[in-house]
Amino acid sequence: MIFAQASRLKTHLPTTTFPAVVSNYPATILAPLYQLEQSQWWSPQQILEKQFQQLGNVLSHAYNTIPFYKTRLENARIDPRQGITSEQWRKIPILVRRDFQGKEQQFLTSALPKGHGRVGEITTSGSTAEPIKIYTTELTQLFWNVFTLRDHYWHKRDFRKKLVSIRFFKGDQAQYPDGANMATWGNPVQLLHHTGPSCALDIKKTDVSDQLAWLSRQEPGYLLTYPSNALELAKLTLDRGLKFPSLQELRLIGEVVDQEVLDICAQAWNVPIVDVYSANEVGYIALQCPEHRNYHIQSENLYVEILHENGTPCAPGEVGKVVVSTLHNFAMPLIRYAIGDYAEVGEPCSCGRGLPVLDRILGRTRNMLVLPTGEKYWPILGLEELTKIAPIRQRQVVQRMLHDIEVRLTTERPLTRAEEDKLREMILSKLGYRFNLSFVYLDRIERSAGGKFEEFISKVTL
Ligand SMILES: [Zn+2]
Questions:
Q1: Alpha carbon of 298 to ligand 1 centroid (Å)
Q2: Are 276 and 287 in contact (CB under 8 A)?
Q3: What is the pTM of this model?
Q4: Which end of the chain lies in a sparser environment, N or C, as judged by fewer CB atoms within 10 Å?
Q5: In the chain, what are the domain boundaries?
Q6: Reduced to 3 states, what is the DSSP secondary structure of residue 361?
């Protein structure tokens, strides 16, 4: 059982450089993979019991080796060495980014269990301005690989086809016009399977038209990119009447997927669209069900709670904040960490898997509009409708202050006064409030570090 054994799991890793280590040991991947094949069919109750067993291990470890958690648990009158109940669990305060930002080292364990391998470190470059550092282990890297494979198996990917990705890369690898070409899909797939080739293109300096030209040269079997980029590629594919007969599936990562993305991409390519929900800090949070559009929480990796503002759990159909606890990161356990996203709880899935269900991922707090009444929601500002009014290529809406909205546009030509007026009316009606609205024209709207494109950003904190 993964849950109970994780803290003792021996990975027998040699002392070579960190992420490559796991690649040498297909057997260390196969064992947990086999366990995941079983655990996905457990009942929700069985899964929860195993999670609480493992949470007990994580909490004891955190209590014993990280003073921050010792104090936090003592204040909540919890002694995890006695085990933990769900009532006690809910008394543990929620952890937020600013609790450890800039003081990450205080969250590093003073005694990592030996079988977890060596400590590595990642910096989340995500969409927020201030990065955070996360300590990982060879064991968490192993789990990353295992869940990557689960996603491939669930969606029955044909590894002989070509995998093509257009995303953010650090440094200057994968630049246009050639991108980077690899003989295989890389790790972890190549450890267990013969694979076809893969290729990658860095999104940060390549405009959509060049991306499409590059993609046309690739004969893609699978295309992996961000939803906002897929939308732009799909529209251009339709405009130019291009066909990609080799394409089997569109894989989306990194951003919230809305209906417009699904509709236009389906129209352009007519292939299944599969999303994943993951975060640098904690790994895979939820994978899309192989049979339905909903998402299964990866309960073997994390304990995920969806909570109302008052801390009570959401029922199916309700939206709440996503709070995660890592089950296997003993270097820097994150316990009841509010990752900044919101999600809607789903009913149990008819596919038979006991893994809990999310119906929708709704995105980040900073992508919520704040109304002067104090209400907050995620605005939907479909590009499609705006382009019916004026020749707009990109748009980004920023709430600069409580009453002030800035609409950033890139356009094919300068807009007329009449077009601006129509746009203003449409945007204000969608936002549901008479904000002061100004237009700013740019040559290009850049993605944030990490490659994400945010359609709406609020700088207002209430
Ligand atoms: Zn399912």
A1: 12
A2: yes
A3: 0.86
A4: C
A5: 2-147+277-366, 156-271, 368-458
A6: strand
Q: Nearest-CA neighbor of 395 among 350, 351, 442, 330?
A: 442
The DSSP code sequence of 125-145 is -SSSSS-EEEEEEHHHHHHHH
Q: How much distance in Å is there from the Cα of 411 to the middle of ligand 1?
A: 42
From the CA of 156, how far away is ligand 1's center (Å)? Answer: 14
222 DSSP 8-state letter: E
Q: Ligand 1: distance of its center to the CA of 418 in Å? A: 49
Q: Do domains 156-271 and 368-458 have the same CATH topology?
A: no
Residue 262 Cα to ligand 1 middle (Å): 19
Pair type for strands 302-307 and 295-297: unpaired
What does the block give as tokens for 386?
A: 């705006």
- How remote is the CA of residue 316 from the centroid of ligand 1, in Å? 15
Q: Helix 259-269 to helix 227-240 angle, to the nearest 10 degrees?
A: 40
**One digit per residue, pLDDT tens: the chain, 462 residues?**
444 333 333 333 333 334 444 545 888 899 999 999 999 999 999 999 999 999 999 999 999 999 999 999 999 999 998 889 999 999 999 999 889 989 999 999 999 998 899 999 998 765 445 788 999 999 999 999 999 999 999 999 999 999 999 998 888 889 999 999 999 999 999 999 999 999 999 998 788 999 999 999 999 999 999 998 999 899 999 999 999 999 999 999 988 898 889 999 999 999 999 999 999 899 999 999 999 999 999 999 999 999 998 999 999 999 999 999 999 999 999 999 999 899 999 999 999 999 999 999 987 777 888 898 888 888 877 777 888 999 998 889 999 999 999 999 999 999 999 999 999 999 999 898 999 999 999 998 887 766 778 888 888 876
Identify the CATH class of 368-458.
alpha beta
> 156-271: what CATH class?
alpha beta
Q: Taking the chain, what is the end-to-end CA distance rounded to the nearest angstrom?
A: 44
Give the Å distance between the CA of 300 and the centre of ligand 1.
16
CATH superfamily to which 2-147+277-366 belongs = ANL, N-terminal domain (3.40.50.12780)
Q: Which of 233, 261, 262 is nearest to 165 (CA)?
A: 233
Distance 198 CA to ligand 1 centre (A): 29
Q: Which residues surround ligand 1, an ion (CB under 5 A)?
A: 289, 349, 351, 353
- Distance (Å, whole) CA 78 – CA 82: 9
